[in-house]
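Sequence in, structure out. Go.
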Amino acid sequence: MPDTMLPSNRLRESLGYLNWLYNPFHGLDAAGIYDLLATSAATERGLYLNLGYWREATDLDAASDALAMLVGETARLGPADSVLDCGFGFGDQDILWAQTLKPGRIVGLNITASQVELARRRVAQLGLHEQIDLRQGSATDMPIESASVDKVVAVECAFHFRTREAFFREAWRVLRPGGRLVLADIIPAPRIGGFPARLEHRVSWRLVAGKFAIPPENAYTKPTYHAKLAMSGFEQIRVESIREHVYAPLHHFLAEHPQTLDRLHPMARLPAKLALRLEATSVYRGLDYVLASAVKPQQLPGASRRP
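Output:
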């Protein structure tokens, strides 16, 4: 497809990347980041922006699908379900779930207007608009009725929310009793090892948190994650690290297929290619990746019980 972007727009976009990635005193909020990234996805067939789940996948598109399916299957999406997907990106996972797991209805919330607009067009083109309803809205102040959905899911986005804890409370509110919450999420890894490893940990986390709009309030490890879900009222909580199926295999795939990065904006290729010169253990030392699930109790605290 020919490049129809005006020179002034290309310059503005390049300056945006330059300021975001290379200016240590400047950052963007989540909506600003995704407006800038636009459709410059590294995937070949879809518009996923996630890191993928690489347990069996052999390319980025398959890994991105696998991560979406891992979340969908962990949430036990099925034909009777009303699903709320928070941070749906360009709608790839909702389209995949609608075509495979076939939940009754999917409502999506996303704060980035440009993503909502394009995702709606993609859904309509596939004739899925009656099954998938994509809206602009916040995951921490949901325009959704209380106790109205069966499943709440969030694929690689809750680390952006200000705060994740506010999202937990809202998810608990909109879920029906017995409803399930499932997230694929990025959190800090536990600190281990001597000074070099601790330094790598600090640099790794701070680079990611600083450039990808992760609020300091969301920087906690698995035990605290579990505790915050419990304090929000959830039960049957599981917070499982799946980092070995995310970071290292992604790093190895990109190192073996550097042409994948050619789909990114030129300003984003340099830091990505520089990172590939380092060992994955160093690059991702400070990052954990978790699959978290929890259930809203059937019998709510204070509710009357049958004799």
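Check: Residues 65 and 93 are 7 Å apart (CA to CA). The longest strand covers residues 175-188.
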